[in-house]
Amino acid sequence: MKFENIEKRLIEALIVLLLNAKGRVVSIKATSLAKLAGLGTDHGAILKAARLLQKLSRHRFLTTAPESKKNKTYRYVLKSEDELWQLVKKDPERAKELLAKIINR
Q: What pTM was estimated for this model as a whole?
């Protein structure tokens, strides 16, 4: 599977996750995002999901949850007040384009 296709599927999965959110906070791990995108537990797909979440965190779209000592994976948190959440709720297509631009930098 091509790299661009994997990124596109990960972005779409993140947007679907936010659109279907029932609460006010969503927490995401790379493995769960890869599974939601239909990529399974393939190590390469999980690494791409982790890089996507890390880039979004660097651009302050996501925050990292406090780490627990027994778990080595990062958990990213998105709240209903955050800019990305609001953008996805208002215009999912524009959010998809914005995320694609951020990822390709």
A: 0.86
